[in-house]
Known about the structure:
two-stranded antiparallel ribbon, Transferase(Phosphotransferase), domain 1
Amino acid sequence: MLGQVLDALEYLHQLDIIHRNLKPSNIALVSSTHCKLQDLSSHALMTDKAKWNIRAEEDPFQKSWMAPEALNFSFSQKSDIWSLGCIILDMVSCSFINRAEAMHLRKSIRSMPDGLKGVLRTMEEKKIPDVETFRSLLPSMLQIDPSERVTIRDVIHITFVSSNFQSSSAALTLHQQVVPAFITDLLLESNVASILEVMQNFSSQPEVQLRALKRLLRMPEDQLGLPWPMELVEMLITIMKKHERILDIQLYACSLLLHSLGQALAQDPAAEVLSDSSVISVLLSTLWNHPESEQLLVTVYSLLTIISSQESASEKLQNAGLFEHILEHLSAFSTNRDICINGLRLLWALMVDAITVNKTPLEKAAVLIPEVLATYPGDVEMAEAGCGVFGLLSMLGCIKEHQFEDVVALFLRSIRLCPDRVLLVNNAYRGLASLAKVSELAALQVVVPEEGGSGLDLLQEMYRLYKDDPEVVENVCMLLAHLANYKEILPELVSSGIGTLVQEIKERFTSSLELVSYAETVLLRLEATTPPRSAGEQSALP
């Protein structure tokens, strides 16, 4: 009964509906094994304080189920948790407490933090079934301060995941016989095919699914037979969908999915991975249902990064509001390195090959990401992920003019920090080129000398380091071509010896039309700014 009430209450809370009037008379038994939650009109009634006061005063006995703050007309999901705690307290103590004593107990615990100790001790003495679970559960539900009360998901976890209770899933066949744990454990000690068969045969029983998933995760990868064929991967997705509110099932299933899809791409980078709307829907639903699980967040972000390599998936994820979701978590979990790195990588994956990109939420990214990177000043991987996103943001025009100076400094600082990371260097120079193309201020920031040396000195160092890498050289040359558009910058390019470098590039990469075009553009502008030699200077030449 408790499991069914929890399912109903969790569903209401997901819809931001507070029941506000939980009590035994509002739990209707429709059969010996099935109950329903009723009297949802309270959600509407109790928005009217005057009507509520009248009804509460007319029925003081029922008022004893309400949370302390509800007496002051302050309702939240935690108010429902208190009321449900009172119901559980009544059920586990009804064998030794009469009706009047129960009402007095419910009222007293609103102001007495230790009011439960006596009844919990009596429950233990009388050997009430599952007493250890209730000793853990009731004090956490009946905290006077609402902020200290557990959530509905915590109650489900304490009661049905961490204890011996049967599953809370209302989707279970109500009259289905539960298979003894020792039988399923015996079946799960076999090979992968046998384990998957058990999972399929007992798909509605989360206890079996949890044990099976744990067993699979303990197996060596050579026995798992990864990557799995798509039909097995789809079975995992089905299980996740069936038990979407059980955090541990989501965690274990996502970990297995990540192993399988990761190995599939390692063997064949062009492999088709799951990208249909139902898979994306399940993964996103997992994120919405368990927003507090940082471990799950990291794993799902990694999965979505793999899936978003396909163009159609990227568009679906954007439309689902994933940009906003990632930015929200980068802000909320800025001290969690794994969330930040995986969030930045997912942002990059969503933007890099997308045909259309919603720029509105990404404008916030240009403000937020520097704050994240500042939290990890010496982290090479973080700098690489951040530069990748900033490079795309600059090309998409998502960086505002007042941010140009800081972003240019960030690119240059990242290159100095990680000169041996070719991906970072490429992203940074593409980003610098995009900014220099639209802003003289950004271009000046590149060439102005500073404590670590000017951007032109750094550029020449990177050319010497990557002179045989056409992609890096092309990005360097593209930046120089945009810098050369500004008359004020041309003297800096001349004095830094850029002409010699560009001439060398032109001669070395004759087969690259793009590179030759950039090089010729720079050389023509440098020649135009160099004053012609006088006749006396020319005759003095050897």
